[in-house]
C-alpha cells in the first residue's frame, strides 16, 4: 500500500499538486486519470522519489519515504518495477538481455539462476520463443510484454506504469491491461497506472484517482465512475465520443 497524505509540490511560484490525499491499495490496479497538465506525472515522480514535495508524506506500507536513509532508499528501489511509456527497451540488447538487466543491476543472482528467472517471466507473459530476438524484430504489443517482464523480474512490491497502452490497438491494449491486472493480483503488488485510455477505466479501474488542476477531484472505482453525476468527472469521462454515446444510451435505458 502506498499512502499519500496532504502532498504539495510547486515549481517556483506555480503550485502543481495542492494537497493530495490518496491510498493506492495492494493487490489492485490503482489508476491516476485527469486532463493533460493536471499533475499525474508529477505525482508519480514524487512517489518514485524523483521530485521532493514541499509538504505532505508518502508512505510505503506504513514507512514514510522522507524518513528513509540512503540505504533504505536503495532498498526501496529494488522493490519497484517501472513500465515506461513506449516500453523503453534497449534496442541493442536481445529480449533476454533486456529482461535480465534489472536482475544484473540490483541483485547478485548467479548466472544460471538469471537465465531461469528470465525464462520464467518470459513464459508468464507468453513470450516463450522470443528471448534471442531484438526489440525491432517483434511487434509493439510483444515489446510491451517484454517491458512488463522486465518490470516484474525482480518480484517488485510496487509497480508503476506510465500510459502502458499508448500506441497499441484496442485489442492489444486490453490484453496488456489484463496482464498488468493479473500480475498485480498474482504477486500481490501495489500497482499504479497513469492512463488516458477510457477502456482501461472499464477494464482495470479498481481504484481511481481523478486529478484536476493538482487537486484530487474525485475517487472511486469503475462502477462508480460511470454512474456518478459529478460534472467534473462526467465532463472528463464523456469527452470521448464513444463514451458520450454510451452515456446517452444509458440515460435512455437502452
Ligand atoms: N520539472 C518541471 N519543472 C517545471 N514544471 C514542471 C515540471 N514537470 C512538470 N511541470 C509542470 O507541472 C504541470 C503538470 O505536469 P504533469 O506532467 O504532471 O501533467 P500530466 O497530468 O502528467 O499531463 P500529461 O497527461 O500531458 O502527461 C504542468 O504545468 C507542467 O508544465
UniProtKB/TrEMBL annotation:
Which part of the chain is the ABC transporter domain? 2-238
**Which Gene3D superfamilies did the record assign?**
P-loop containing nucleotide triphosphate hydrolases (3.40.50.300)
Q: Which UniProt keywords apply?
A: ATP-binding, Nucleotide-binding, Transport
**One Pfam match:** ABC_tran
User: SUPFAM superfamilies in the record, alphabetically?
Assistant: P-loop containing nucleoside triphosphate hydrolases (SSF52540)
Name the PROSITE patterns for this protein. ABC_TRANSPORTER_1, ABC_TRANSPORTER_2
Q: Which InterPro entries match?
A: AAA+_ATPase, ABC_transporter-like_ATP-bd, ABC_transporter-like_CS, P-loop_NTPase
Q: Which SMART domains does the protein's record reference?
A: AAA
Gene Ontology molecular function: ATP binding; ATP hydrolysis activity
Designated name of the protein? Phosphonate ABC transporter ATP-binding protein
Q: Taxonomic lineage per UniProt? A: Bacteria, Pseudomonadati, Bacteroidota, Flavobacteriia, Flavobacteriales
